[in-house]
Amino acid sequence: MQGDGHDDEDDLARTLVLMRHAEAARDEHGAKGDLARPLTPAGRRDAHVRGTQLRDIGFVPDLVLVSPAVRSAETYDALGPLSAGPAPLRRTEAGLYENGPDGILEVLRLAPEKARNIIVVGHNPDLYQLVLDLAGKSVDDPDKAVLARGFPTLATVFFGVRGPWHKLKRKRVSLTRVLCD
């Protein structure tokens, strides 16, 4: 309701999905070649399976944020289309690569408010640390305790988000689902 001091925008349901990229080839060229590492054939197959799981769940992103690493872009591509509708807005974000969990959070806080569902495809250890920071004590839940063991390739975590993206923080999210093989 407008005019009662309550911001309707805060109550609109949002979903944030944080996903680690699929299995990538070894880096044969040192740190400079890390951004160019492609997925392995197994990584492509596994990402396709994860895409099927996302479709089965009914997750349809409005915004896709992908790190500049080849393996992240290939992971998202290998998921396949997540809906029969128009493709979501997709942005490559330098702040998702070796920029720490706070850097990822800053990228998310700049997301357009019209985006209801966002998926981020990124890297460890930063993505895992952000998941743990946002999840807080939720990782103690038996259904989500798998997170305490790490964040392997294609680990995918869903958060329900209350309020606008620019106010994203632990108190405004709830861990709702973990896909971790």
Describe the structure.
The structure is a single chain. With 181 residues, this protein is an alpha/beta fold. It contains five helices and six strands; from the N terminus they run αβαβαβαβαββ. Helix 2 crosses helix 3 and helix 4 crosses helix 5.
Calculate Rg over CA atoms: 16 Å
The spatial strand order of the largest sheet comes to: 3-2-4-1-5-6
Strand content: 15-25%
Point out poorly predicted stretches: 1-9
Output the helix-strand order: HEHEHEHEHEE
Provide the structure class: alpha/beta
Largest sheet: 6 strands, mixed
Number of strands: 6
User: What is the average per-residue confidence, as pLDDT, rounded to a whole number?
Assistant: 89
Number of contiguous helices: 5
How far is the first residue's CA from the last residue's CA?
43 Å
Shape: globular
Helix content: 25-40%
List its traits.
6 strands, six-stranded mixed sheet, 181 residues, alpha/beta
Write the topology of this structure.
Layout: H1 8-11, E1 14-20, H2 41-57, E2 63-66, H3 70-79, E3 89-92, H4 100-109, E4 117-122, H5 126-135, E5 156-161, E6 173-179
Compose a concise summary of this entry.
The chain has 181 residues and is α/β, with parallel strands linked by helices.
